[in-house]
Amino acid sequence: MSAINTSQIRDEIKRVNGGAFDGNRAKLLPVLQHLQARFGCISGEAMQEVADAVGLRPVEVEEIISFYSFLRKDAAGRFIIRLCRTLSCDMQGKQRVANQLESELGIRFGETTPDKLFTLEYTNCMGMCDQGPAMLVNDRIFTHVTPEKVHRIVTECRRQFGEYQTGLVDFNPNIRKVGPILTGISEAEAGLRRALRMPRSEVIGEIRAAFLRGRGGAGFPVSTKWQIAAAAKGANKYVVCNADEGEPGTFKDRLLLLDFADKVIEGMTIAGYAIGATQGLIYLRGEYTFMREELEESISNRRKKSLLGQSIFGKEDMVFDVDIRMGSGAYVCGEETALIESMEGKRGEPRNRPPFPVNTGFMNSPTAVNNVETFVNAALILDKGPEWYKQNGTAQSTGTKLFSISGDCISPGIFEFPLGISISEVLEEAHGEDAKAVQIGGASGQCVPRSGFERCISFEDAPPGGSIIVIGPDRDMLDVAENFLEFFAEESCGQCIPCRKGTQVLLEGVRLLRRGDCSLEYLARLRKLSASMKIASKCGLGQSAPNAFMGIVDHFQDELLGRRPKE
Amino acid sequence: MAKVLIVDDDRDLVDVTRLILEREGYEVVSASNPDDGWETVQEEEPDVILLDVMMDSEDDGFVLAQNLRKDGCKIPIIMLTNIGRVTGLDFGIDEEMVPVDEYAEKPLSPKNLLALVRKYAK
């Protein structure tokens, strides 16, 4: 970085938005991401220049860099190798790959080789849980990594690696079961065309009649969100697509963003029309940088066909465009208020609620934030009607849903199931019938033991997050708990004490349990702590962090109490 | 005397509003969600509707107002809500999305409440 001079930095800053920021820090993250990509790090000098350009103090720029794991102040190796350490990759032999990487490179995780060629790091879920272990080399994702492959990849990198830029290696879309959403998805633009012929309130009425609930996990009625954003006054309103699919074990949006981007953007356009927004934003997680080019191409093609921009479908007052904003490796940004903070160029720290983001959203304007899959569902509902949609699912959980299934099963991948399906039916499809438990909804979801396999996956019973991790009969539940708690301790934004400290204490508690050093009295205290965290944490991350621990304490007492203290 | 329909899921607020209006001689009927509100409008044919927005129900007050107007109902609707405070956003009358005659943020003093009702009651 020392060879980089000030004028080079200024030139690069000018490449983003023409260097015109006018005190608007919303472009801060794109500038930093650009400098990071260009120079490999953001030096003190670069921070000063960015601060001057955007109208901030250097320390305000530094606090952003320190928050996002993909941004760095110090130069890293030319190749940053990030190995996924999430449970599903762990189950598929991550440790052997980690050992091979360390021995191949002669460094430990967190270090850079003396020749500055390689930096080795762990990362959290990369959305490749069905084909792990997965690893990123800069922006390129390698799946099904084995120790043998590690040797080949490292050798290739050392040989000037021209081909190792971005993209996917050994990737399989892994669609295991399709349903009405994935099969109905091919009919282009019918939903948007129909929506634009209706009054806005009727578009929301169709979504209400279908009783579409958010596909991100919380299940908030989409029509209510859109209704409030539509009714609120604001010169600028926004539609935000939450493509920050960071929940461990979740990779269903990967399919939609890679293969059905047009339908996602069509759904966003319908939402834009319904709420009166002219700007849509896709917040794409940093780990999915390899998708960016294709998404931009989809957006550009839609502009050429007048499906984005001015006078969409010839309707003069219909103006809507879409832009992409990149995340930079922070799980908490999947929480919608944190996501909005991040898009505004701030640390991705969750906001207090209320107010809810449907109103005081991006740039203090009415904003509807929805999941990728929700937009696809909305587009199909407008195309085929609410009655078609309600043919599947239950009264409170209409339609079908995509599930990412990984872990100890023979057929991991993406499945479309009607909501209301039982866990045992799901396991049969994925060939994981001998499981002793499943983790539904990722690390922040809930652990259901075998005795609960007749439960239904629906908003009325076991809430459907995007993922199901199958836990086989030989798996140590404390390994599962430790993996999840390491994840939460790492990803806690540190704003509130119950989450920041609580995740660390629980992690330590699980390690004590593993060693057989945890007394029953201390276990009881950990349970109390978990209950407190659920109440006192500021956002969903802290509130759900103890779920995995509580689930294991509640359902797998034998595994805990069977541990004997060391001699 | 005119008949006023209150659609609100806050029982205490309905009781207090009822007390204030009945003292002035209005007849008061109430409903606790938009569905019941719709039924009550058909059955009771009120002269004025006081309508909350966020209720413990699938639909909200915006939807009821939109449906009533779509149905040709011309009864004056006074929207009484705290959605602006809760959400931090501006709301107001909008022909399509908020088709009401008056929009007011809670809490409303008895004096202002009566002034609004008088303005629209026959």
Short description:
Chain A is built from 24 helices and 15 strands.
Helices and strands in order:
The complex is a heterodimer of chains A (567) and B (122).
Chain A: H1 6-15, H2 28-39, H3 44-54, H4 58-67, E1 79-84, H5 87-91, H6 94-105, E2 118-123, E3 135-137, E4 139-142, H7 147-158, E5 166-169, E6 175-177, H8 180-184, H9 190-196, H10 200-210, H11 222-231, E7 238-243, H12 252-259, H13 261-275, E8 279-284, H14 292-304, E9 321-326, H15 336-343, E10 367-371, H16 372-384, H17 386-389, E11 400-407, E12 413-418, H18 423-430, E13 437-440, E14 446-449, E15 467-471, H19 477-491, H20 497-515, H21 520-536, H22 540-544, H23 547-555, H24 557-561
Helix pairs in contact in A: 1-3, 3-4, 6-7, 9-13, 9-16, 10-11, 10-13, 12-13, 13-16, 19-20, 20-21
Chain B: E1 3-7, H1 11-23, E2 27-31, H2 34-44, E3 48-51, H3 61-70, E4 77-81, H4 83-87, E5 102-105, H5 110-120
Helix pairs in contact in B: 2-3
List keywords for this structure.
heterodimer, A: 567 residues, alpha/beta, six-stranded mixed sheet, five-stranded mixed sheet, 15 strands, 43% helix, globular, B: 122 residues, five-stranded parallel sheet, 5 helices
What does this structure look like?
The complex is a heterodimer of chains A (567) and B (122). With 567 residues, chain A is α/β, with parallel strands linked by helices. Chain A is built from 24 helices and 15 strands. Chain A has helices at 6-15, 28-39, 44-54, 58-67, 87-91, 94-105, 147-158, 180-184, 190-196, 200-210, 222-231, 252-259, 261-275, 292-304, 336-343, 372-384, 386-389, 423-430, 477-491, 497-515, 520-536, 540-544, 547-555, 557-561, and strands at residues 79-84, 118-123, 135-137, 139-142, 166-169, 175-177, 238-243, 279-284, 321-326, 367-371, 400-407, 413-418, 437-440, 446-449, 467-471. The N and C termini of chain A lie far apart (53 Å). With 122 residues, chain B is of the alpha/beta class. Chain B contains 5 helices and 5 strands; from the N terminus they run βαβαβαβαβα. Chain B has a 5-stranded parallel sheet with strand order 2-1-3-4-5, with helices on both faces. In chain B, α2 (34-44) packs parallel to α3 (61-70). Chain B starts with a strand and ends with a helix. The interface between A and B is medium-sized, with 22 and 18 residues.
